[in-house]
Every structure is written in C-alpha cells, then in structure tokens.
C-alpha cells in the first residue's frame, strides 16, 4: 500500500466510478479503468463526497466487485478477493492490514487493533485510521467496536454497521474477540 492521494496523483490513470444500491444504502466504487478498486464509500454516509472532477462514470466497471458484494450481502461470501489500491501512511496501512485479519462475524476493539499494530497506546489513532479506510466493507472497519462492545462511528452510519455485523453473525460468523 502506498501514500494516499486525492484526487488522482499525476501519472496515475484517470479514475472511473460506479454507484450501486445495497442493503446499507447506495455505494460508490472508485478505481482504475482496469478494475483495481481504490475506494468503496457510502453515497449518503456521514461524510459523503461527490465524485471528483475528472472521474468518469462507468456503469459496467467493477463487475467482480459488484458480484462479490452481492455474494457477501447474500451471506455466501466471507472474504473478498479483489485488486485493491489503498493509499495511506505506514500507520494507516498497518491498521488496514490488521482490519483484514479480523475474522468474519467477529468484532474487536480499537485497543486490540492498536496492540496488533505494535502501538498499544494508540487507540485514538487507530480510530482515525479506521475512519480513513478508503475501502469500507471489503476492509472490514465495521468489525471494530468500543472497548465495552458498543458501536462507535462508521462512515455509513451506525444502523449500517449494525446491519453488517448482524448479517455476518446470521451467516454463521464467529463471536466477539474481546
């Protein structure tokens, strides 16, 4: 993973995007014309951003992402196998990698993620990195909860976070890790 840039850094291909409905509200997929996903965000989330100038809408883009999301929402997919381009600081990338290691249907705390990345006193920084996750759902930031098990911030809103956790548990996911 590399340092995050927005809009497209010089030398990168122009980005394409596609919006699609989902059980947690409309989603926007953004990435390279070759299908590499850079962002998966909530169109009507806590911090919605319109498409950047220069992005081109392509309603056929990201067919593999759309198919895997459909399987996930149907309870038939536990892991995603997609090409991702996630740009962030080394700390953010470490947090995002730790998020991908949280088992399907499980939750963990910000403090536990901080310990996993070797920064046990950095729970707040983990929260910030979690909130900056450019690829929601696929990199499962929704699986991180408060130390006492309460739901905390989520880009798609707390009802969407609860929906995702309930979906995973109903499909045979594990239990809380902390």
Polypeptide structure, described:
By secondary structure, the chain is an alpha/beta fold. The chain has a domain at 90-170: Arc Repressor Mutant, subunit A, CATH 1.10.10. It is 29% helix and 12% strand. It is built from five helices and six strands; from the N terminus they run ββββααβααβα. The protein has helices at 63-73, 90-100, 110-116, 123-131, 158-170, and strands at residues 16-20, 27-31, 37-42, 56-57, 108-109, 144-145. The strands form two sheets. It has a four-stranded mixed beta sheet, with no helix packed on it. Helix 3 (110-116) crosses helix 4. The relative contact order is 0.18. Residues 1-8 have low confidence and may be disordered.
* CATH topology tier name of the domain at 90-170: Arc Repressor Mutant, subunit A
Taking the sheet with the most strands, its summary is: 4 strands, mixed
Task: Work out the oligomeric state of the chains in this entry.
Answer: single chain
The gross shape turns out to be globular
Class by SSE composition: alpha/beta
Going by CATH, what is the homologous superfamily of the domain at 90-170? Winged helix-like DNA-binding domain superfamily/Winged helix DNA-binding domain
What is the highest CATH level, the class of the domain at 90-170?
Answer: Mainly Alpha
Beta-strand segment tally: 6
């Amino acid at each position: 993973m590399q340092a995050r840039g927005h809009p497209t850094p010089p030398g990168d291909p122009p980005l394409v995007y596609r919006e699609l409905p989902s059980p947690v509200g409309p989603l926007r997929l953004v990435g390279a014309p070759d299908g590499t996903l850079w962002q998966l965000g909530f169109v009507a989330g806590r911090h919605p951003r319109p498409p950047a100038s220069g992005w081109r809408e392509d309603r056929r883009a990201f067919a593999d992402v759309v198919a895997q999301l459909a399987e996930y929402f149907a309870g038939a997919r536990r892991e995603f196998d997609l090409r991702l381009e996630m740009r962030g600081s080394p700390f953010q990338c470490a947090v995002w990698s730790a998020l991908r290691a949280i088992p399907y249907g499980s939750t963990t705390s910000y403090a536990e993620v901080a310990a996993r990345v070797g920064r046990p006193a950095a729970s707040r920084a983990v929260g910030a990195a979690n909130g900056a996750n450019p690829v929601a759902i696929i990199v499962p930031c929704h699986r991180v909860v408060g130390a006492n098990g309460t739901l905390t911030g989520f880009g798609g809103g707390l009802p969407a976070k609860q929906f995702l956790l309930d979906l995973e548990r109903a499909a045979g996911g594990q239990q809380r890790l902390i």
